[in-house]
Structure formats: C-alpha cells, structure tokens
Write a structure and sequence with these properties.
Number of strands: 14
Helix content: 10-25%
Radius of gyration: 21 Å
Shape: flat
Distance between the termini: 32 Å
Strand order of the largest sheet: 1-2-3-4-5-8-9-10-11-12-13-14
CATH class: Mainly Beta
CATH architecture: Beta Barrel
Strand content: over 45%
Order of helices and strands: HHEEEEEEEEEHEEEEE
Number of helices: 3
Structural class: mainly beta
CATH topology: Porin
Number of domains: 1
C-alpha cells in the first residue's frame, strides 16, 4: 500500500497547494478545474419461453474524472485523475469485470517559447480488483479461471523529462528523452508466474529506461459531442530494434451530452505490451447513464 499512499499524497499536495499557498487568492483564480462522476446501468431480461433467443444480463459501472490546470505566461500545469470500474453478469456466467482502471498524471511544463515547453511528468496506473483469464485449460485439459492481474499487480509508474509542443489548444505532443518506467507486481501469486516482464519469477519491481512519445487530441467534433484521443509509446533504450522493445497504447473516448444529467460514452483502447502478450489487445465499452459535473 506504500504506492497508493504516495499517489494520494501527491494528489492531495497538488490540491492543497492551490488552496493554501501564500498567494492563495491569485492561484485559486488561475486553476481551472473540472470534476465529473457518474453511474451507468444496462439490463435485459427474457422469459424462459422467449423464442427470439437471448440471455438475461445486467451491467453497471462507475467513473470519476478530475482535471485541474493552470495555463499562464510561464507555466502549463495539469493534474489529471481518472478512475473507472464496471461489472457484467450474464445468466449463465458469474459476475465479471468489463472495465477497471486507476490513472493519475501530474505534469509541469515551463514555457521556453509560445509553442514549446520543457516538461516533467509523473504517470501512475493500476486497477481496483483482480482480473482473470476465464476458461483457460489446465494441464488436464479442464477449463479453469486463471488469476492474471490484481491491484498493484501490475502497477506502472512512469516519470519523464523532455519537450512538449503545443501548436494549438486542441493538440499537443511530448518527447520524453529521459524517462523511467517502473513496473510493480506486489501479488506473490502473479510475480511467481513471471508475468509483466519481471526478470525473475518472484521479483516485485522492474525498472526500464525509455523514450516516451505522446500525442493528445481533444476537441468538440459536433455540438455536444466531444472527442479525446491519446496515443503513447514507450521505447526501451536497451531493446531498440527488437520486437519486444516498444509498448503502444491508444485511447479514444467519445462523449455525447444528452442534457445536464445524462450522457452517452464510447470508449475504445488498443494496446500492445510484449511483456504481457505478443498480440494487440483491444477493449470497447458503450455506456449511457447519469453524470454529475462541477466546473470552475
């Protein structure tokens, strides 16, 4: 739990600095904040004699997003927190996750020109609950549920220094020439399996020196329809040119605001980490539900 404590400390320090610094009045005006939380529900049911086919299902999800930023003549500061968790249950299956993520990033960019910043950032990612590979066959050929992930197993902490380019308000890109990616696996059952690129079964921490590339786009593509897209890659300096030397991740999120309290969201993730799986991983979630938002 030491990583969780540090993560919460960094987030609370950023918030308290904005509220209690000697120049609190002026700083509070500069911080632009956006907070949103919501619940999504989906349910379908059929009678036993329903001839059209179908299966009783129930899905629910919760999310929380908090963003705070400062953009002045000298600094571009961003604090970004995103948490999501969702579950799905079919009549013939046990309760299963369909989304689970904890993400936090703090970035400080110092302007060296109108469009270029020198930046430093910290990025943290993990999940809330255990993850399973369902129906995986054991040595006897019997399908079993295999534990493959859990909270802080893995957790990724990436610190980066480099240059950031802002051609306009809707797009920016980063090149982190000095970046350290740390992988933490604090569940002994998973670390003994040697998953997530650990050098030896039973290890808990792995360090990688990487080049970080990031592209981010956010814009309203139609009235009340917002698009956010983010691509990042991590290139291991010691495995350049090898098939397992690059981690790719692409996130796309489309939000349609129905009214003040209702929204529809489409989220897709395309991910490739050779230390997890040699093939591309893909997830997609479409949801509609209640949202509560505060913007300042």
């Amino acid at each position: 739990m030491r990583l969780l404590t540090c993560f919460l400390l960094v987030f609370s320090m950023q918030t308290s600095w904005a509220e209690s610094s000697p120049a609190a009045d002026s700083v509070r005006v500069k911080w632009k904040t956006d907070f949103a939380t919501g619940i999504n529900l989906n349910q379908s049911s059929f009678s036993d004699n329903w001839k059209g086919g179908g299966s009783n299902t129930f899905a629910t999800g919760w999310y929380l997003n908090h963003n705070a930023s400062i953009n002045n003549k000298s600094w571009r500061l961003i604090s970004d927190l995103s948490m999501q968790v969702g579950f799905l249950q079919n009549k013939t299956q046990s309760l299963r996750k369909n989304i689970d993520r904890i993400f936090y990033e703090f970035k400080a960019g110092y302007r060296i020109s109108p469009q270029w910043d020198f930046y430093g950032s910290t990025n943290f990612q993990t999940q809330f609950f255990q993850g399973f590979e369902y129906g995986k066959k054991n040595k006897l050929g019997i399908p079993v549920d295999s534990l493959v992930s859990s909270i802080f197993a893995p957790a990724y902490l990436t610190t980066s220094l480099g240059l950031e380019f802002h051609p306009n308000k809707q797009f920016y890109t980063r090149v982190g020439v000095g970046s350290l990616r740390q992988t933490f696996v604090f569940d002994d059952r998973i670390s003994r399996a040697g998953l997530f690129g650990l050098e030896r079964p039973g290890d808990n921490i792995r360090n990688q020196f990487v080049l970080q590339l990031l592209l981010n786009v956010e814009r309203d593509i139609f009235e009340n329809v917002n698009m956010k897209a983010r691509y990042s890659s991590l290139i291991d300096y010691f495995r350049v040119g090898l098939s397992n030397g690059i981690v790719h991740r692409f996130d796309a999120n489309f939000t349609m605001k129905v009214n003040k309290y209702l929204s529809t969201n489409l989220q897709a993730v395309l991910y490739k980490d050779p230390d997890q799986d040699p093939d591309w991983q893909f997830s997609q979630v479409l949801s509609m539900g209640l949202v509560y938002r505060i913007s300042k």
